[in-house]
Amino acid sequence: MTMPQGHVAHLGYAMLDTPDLDATVWFFENILGMTETRRVDGMSFLRAYDDYEECSIIACQAPTSGIRRTALRASSERALEERAVAVQDAGRPGRWEDGIAGRGRTFVTTDPDGHQLALYYDTVWYEAPEDLAAGLKNQAQAKPNRGIGVRRFDHINFLAARPEDNAAFHIDVLGARPTEQIRMDDGRIAAKWLSFGQKSYDVVYTEDWTGGSGRLHHLAFATDTREEILRAADLCLDQGVHIETGPHKHAIQQTFFLYVFEPGGNRIEMCNPLTRLVLAPDWPLVTWTEPERKRGQAWGLGTIETFHTHGTPPMEGQDTQAYRPTGMLGKRPSGDARR
Ligand SMILES: [Fe+2]
């Protein structure tokens, strides 16, 4: 058995639950500028313009919001097989099933907090139809002239009762490396950022104060420029999409950000981390202290209270439907963008 580093290549796709699929798809198409490739059995397959696979988000009609599955692409068939064995050796559950959305056979497990994780290697590369084809052969699809046109699904931030235990699973079993963390005064790790490649993070675990399990803090989508995030803020303002915080710059990881709630209640980040890479093989884990964390974001913006209280699915008493955008009430999602 080889060491796990390098065995996971990148985030593959997330299955996101929503109680209002039409409204959620409207958001992904008209705010983020993603493209729906098809809709089958209550699932919408959505792609960022630079996705080389069919989709990176599968929005699923469900009774409530939250994260159903997070899939990771292994770096080879052998890496997939070895990680599946390692997951089971670590005492986690596991099963093989047929892949979806062009992916081959898939190994499904959970992290210690109960989030469903899936590993696959075989995949089908996306071929754009003629009307969506890019001008250059090294780009999967033309950038849509709609919404802000996110480039890719960038990272996922999970809520978890014990971020350290879940991070250890990713490090020891899946081969992630930790790049930054928050250590509270009492010694507990309140959040940890993990990377599978040279992006400074792909997966984050943040402490869930509610006592829930398997919940989502946010999904993040990378833009080409910071200006597109400013454009997104105006677009959300015009369309009545709830802006939670930003635009601003994080101190941790230095990501330029905007956080909004999509109509299904899930928190979505638009982020611009594209220029920051961790190239050093011996990168030292950066630890932020509790007093440093309390200083807020990089340019002084305080951390908004809902950042610590809102997650999906909602806990009892949280009303995520209060965040339904006003701009789309009474409108059908724009059908002209569907392919
Ligand atoms: Fe984020």
From TrEMBL:
Residues annotated as domain VOC: 10-122, 152-273
Classification via Pfam families: Glyoxalase
UniProt cross-references to Gene3D superfamilies, sorted A to Z: 2,3-Dihydroxybiphenyl 1,2-Dioxygenase, domain 1
UniProt-recorded name of the protein: VOC family protein
Organism lineage: Bacteria, Bacillati, Actinomycetota, Actinomycetes, Micrococcales
Record region (Disordered): 308-339
Gene source species: Demequina litoralis
